[in-house]
Design a protein that fits this description.
Elements lengths: L6 E2 L6 E2 L5 E3 L2 E3 L1 H8 L7 H11 L10 H13 L4 H8 L3 H13 L3 E6 L2 E6 L1
Antiparallel strand pairs: 1-2, 3-4, 5-6
Helix pairs in contact: 3-5
Bound molecules: zinc ion (ZN).
Length: about 120
Amino acid sequence: MQGNMPFQCSKCGKTLEKHECYEHQGKVFCEDCYMDILSPPKACDPWAVHSAQTFLKGKDKLSTLTHLQLNIVNYIKGRGEATIEEMVENLNLTEGELRREFAVLRHMEILKATKKGEKIFYILF
Ligand SMILES: [Zn+2]
């Protein structure tokens, strides 16, 4: 029913000859846009995918940590586990400071505590 009306790509607005038209879901597209629609790049937003994945792994959160918190996380990461006493000694922090930072890190699901015998070890979440 379009008669001699020029066709127009619904995406980029390019004017099309009838033979240049590609139809998809009731809309007309030029060849380029049609190809775009049919085969969107696999990782159309690799950065978003990447950050979603790292967020799920809890690593993206590290960028929001304070220097002090990072020290604690890196220390534990390096050892696999650490006790408060050990960190007091090696990180030059008081037990109070460590416990306060640890509460934040645990809330962020970066670190957690695990009990081994009588000792509490802090490990990566
Ligand atoms: Zn187009």
